[in-house]
Amino acid sequence: MRLVIARCTVDYSGRLDAHLPEATRLIMVKADGCVAIHADGGAYKPLNWMNAPNRLIEQDNVWEVTNPGGERLVITMTELLHDSAHELGSDPGLVKDGVEKHLQELLADHPETIEEGLVLVRREHATDIGPVDLLCRDASGQAVAVEIKRKGEIDGVEQLTRYLDRIRQDPSLKDVRGILAAQAIKPQARALAAARDIDCVTIDYDALRGLEPTEPRLF
Amino acid sequence: MRLVIARCTVDYSGRLDAHLPEATRLIMVKADGCVAIHADGGAYKPLNWMNAPNRLIEQDNVWEVTNPGGERLVITMTELLHDSAHELGSDPGLVKDGVEKHLQELLADHPETIEEGLVLVRREHATDIGPVDLLCRDASGQAVAVEIKRKGEIDGVEQLTRYLDRIRQDPSLKDVRGILAAQAIKPQARALAAARDIDCVTIDYDALRGLEPTEPRLF
DNA sequence: GTGTATATCTCGGGG
DNA sequence: CCCCGAGGTATACAC
Fold this sequence. Notes:
The structure is a homodimer.
Chain A: E1 2-13, E2 17-29, E3 35-38, E4 48-50, E5 55-59, E6 62-66, E7 72-85, E8 95-97, H1 100-109, E9 119-127, E10 130-137, E11 143-152, H2 154-167, E12 177-185, H3 187-195, E13 198-202, H4 205-211
Parallel strand pairs in A: 11-12, 12-13
Antiparallel strand pairs in A: 1-2, 1-7, 2-3, 3-4, 5-6, 6-7, 9-10, 10-11
Helix pairs in contact in A: 2-3
Chain A binds a DNA duplex (15 and 15 nucleotides) through strand 4.
């Protein structure tokens, strides 16, 4: 990783056009060739960036970064204040706990916590517009499509609605109903769900994890 | 901005739990107190981060970053390889051209490029679930709601559908129809739009910009 | 503050 | 390669 602090202007042209007036910034060049330009505020987003793979041409005080997609980033440096390189090696990567995938795994193992008598038919049931999180059958034998979210918002209701439309085109599943299962569901999502005869169920993630016999903690 | 290269482990606890095994990484502390931890690959996202405002406690080789929302990031350093501080000053910020806002401004000035005879009634017409980009009337006097996107995808059709449902509850607008206007529209979005009697119109941004008398180039 | 939409979203997975 | 969905999304803006 190369770290350069320089007074510079930057021009990006690609998915849109963008320009940075002259100021002092950090220019980060990583081992994979990607480039990010950071100001001294805002943790997350660089002001400008180019993802790998890139071609970087250094010509005096002008750096030109291009990528196969036709995007182009030009950094014009007027004053170089720091320039250092560091060998970091590869990163083992982030280990996460508590994302939607875990919630889906737990609910697939314990569908009865969504609704009494609910039985799993298939996880990630495929439709031609994407996979439904859980396809189940309820105590009466009726098919139930379950969309799982950490946060239940309008988008989740729209998504489940699209899936239900598709699933219902299969004659054997034409009376499928929908459930939105989430750790918390916003009033707007509840309202839209109600208008579309979709049930809402809130899930207690910690209680659910307590049902797992082995308590598979990641760290 | 302070730049530290160190061999470290990192633990985050907050909206989820996350852990980084020991490796060498860049730790960036910006003037506003935010912290980002970068590996040597991937331009955009830090592995872990804490947005300002933060409280940072340095205790020997352990840094503890906490924020008012109860999130907590702990960096345990086993080897310090680089530590430098740099005065960057404030950044004038990024100037952009070609985002959706510009497209909306241009189309508001030239609604006839969307459809012959179309006349603007109101930009950002408010509904109780959000603003419609353009509300217009067509040559026959019928109301038309226009949703503008740079890229026309399914979400845009869903969004316009929700607005149309709301707008039609107003008796004076009950026969409003919808147009999705975008620089490019995906087949999936076209299919969904067709199923909902929403028209699709592709927009040539450069040609549209050429219609502006003053050619308001930003840089 | 909540609610909504945008983003050069990024990133990863599946066909 | 495209398509789709998740994200500690972040970020801006209106109410």
